Amino acid sequence: MAAIYILFASFFLSLPLSQAGVVDLTSSNFDQVVDGSKAAFVEFYAPWCGHCKRLAPEYEKLGAAYEGSNDVVIAKVDADADRTLGGRFGVRGFPTLKFFPKGSTTPEDYNGGRSADDFIKFINEKTGSNAGIKTPPSDVVVLDPSNFDSVALNKDKDVLVEFYAPWCGHCKALIPVYEEVATTFKNDENCIVANVDADGHRSLGTKYGVSGFPTIKFFPKGSTEPEDYNGGRGVDDFIKFLNEKCGTHRVKGGSLSPEAGLVDELNDLAKKFMAEADSRESILEEAQTKAQELDSPQADYYVKVMNKVQEKGDSYIETESERLGRMVDGKKVSAKKSDEFTKRRNVLRKFEL
């Protein structure tokens, strides 16, 4: 009995999978897979069919939801190439979806909705399964008509928006790049990386003149009119663009560059303060005046460092930098604090001779 089970399991493991969890069927293996031992949900499609192409990403989610299931098989048949198999089941258009209950090789027509959620609800009800869509974590903000204006048109935020279609090959190729960009900027609450399914929400695509996929637009803070993004499609291209537009200093992965937190007007004064010990009081006064004019927390930090050096001596620069480094490198603080401490370390380096 154990040997039979192993052979049965090996057969299913050896089946061709064109998508995660979706079995490719032909006349040569159909009856071996759809044999009544499991429930089966089968799409009969044609590669050239536009509706089939649009269905593909939803069907891929469906396959992933039941991947490894002992009770349900998700499969598909190229019924244009294998017309005999399509004719056998009365396929007259594409895509045609059929459900084969466990214990039967006679199908039921599926006439429900065409989203992965619709499919899963139907199959779970038919089989008693409790599968669900496996959604990987993402730092990309998902937009739709209910939240588009509140995010993309927020007067306090800079927002990069990808208008995509789930079936678009170029959009799929962009996914890992766009995810890495979103992760890089996830700690910048006013520099947002977002996307919207402009095929599913066509009114948004039409409103912003989207005529192809993917279309990428940048919505600057304080404006309701987007700018077209026509730059490169690599991670570094997007990061450079957003740093320039958002005034940020991110590097790939999300950490801050050595320039983050620096104040150009005070960098020379920092060096001068350490080099000219006899003139520190006058340099400190000059820095205080400049910081008041700039009215920024980072400018104030230069003054704070000068006061600490006056109080604790020149060694303060090294000891404080090392202390902040331990906090950041040891990941003992929140992402927000890590950014704050990294900026402080960058400033402290300007005091080093």
TrEMBL record:
<dbReference type="InterPro" id="IPR036249">
    <property type="entry name" value="Thioredoxin-like_sf"/>
</dbReference>
<protein>
    <recommendedName>
        <fullName>protein disulfide-isomerase</fullName>
        <ecNumber>5.3.4.1</ecNumber>
    </recommendedName>
</protein>
<dbReference type="InterPro" id="IPR036356">
    <property type="entry name" value="ERp29_C_sf"/>
</dbReference>
<dbReference type="Pfam" id="PF07749">
    <property type="entry name" value="ERp29"/>
</dbReference>
<dbReference type="InterPro" id="IPR011679">
    <property type="entry name" value="ERp29_C"/>
</dbReference>
<feature type="domain" description="Thioredoxin">
    <location>
        <begin position="129"/>
        <end position="247"/>
    </location>
</feature>
<dbReference type="InterPro" id="IPR017937">
    <property type="entry name" value="Thioredoxin_CS"/>
</dbReference>
<keyword id="KW-1015">Disulfide bond</keyword>
<dbReference type="GO" id="GO:0003756">
    <property type="term" value="F:protein disulfide isomerase activity"/>
</dbReference>
<keyword id="KW-0413">Isomerase</keyword>
<dbReference type="GO" id="GO:0005783">
    <property type="term" value="C:endoplasmic reticulum"/>
</dbReference>
<feature type="signal peptide">
    <location>
        <begin position="1"/>
        <end position="20"/>
    </location>
</feature>
<dbReference type="Pfam" id="PF00085">
    <property type="entry name" value="Thioredoxin"/>
</dbReference>
<dbReference type="GO" id="GO:0006457">
    <property type="term" value="P:protein folding"/>
</dbReference>
<dbReference type="InterPro" id="IPR051063">
    <property type="entry name" value="PDI"/>
</dbReference>
<keyword id="KW-0732">Signal</keyword>
<dbReference type="InterPro" id="IPR013766">
    <property type="entry name" value="Thioredoxin_domain"/>
</dbReference>
<keyword id="KW-0676">Redox-active center</keyword>
<comment type="similarity">
    <text>Belongs to the protein disulfide isomerase family.</text>
</comment>
<keyword id="KW-0677">Repeat</keyword>
<dbReference type="InterPro" id="IPR005788">
    <property type="entry name" value="PDI_thioredoxin-like_dom"/>
</dbReference>
<feature type="domain" description="Thioredoxin">
    <location>
        <begin position="14"/>
        <end position="128"/>
    </location>
</feature>
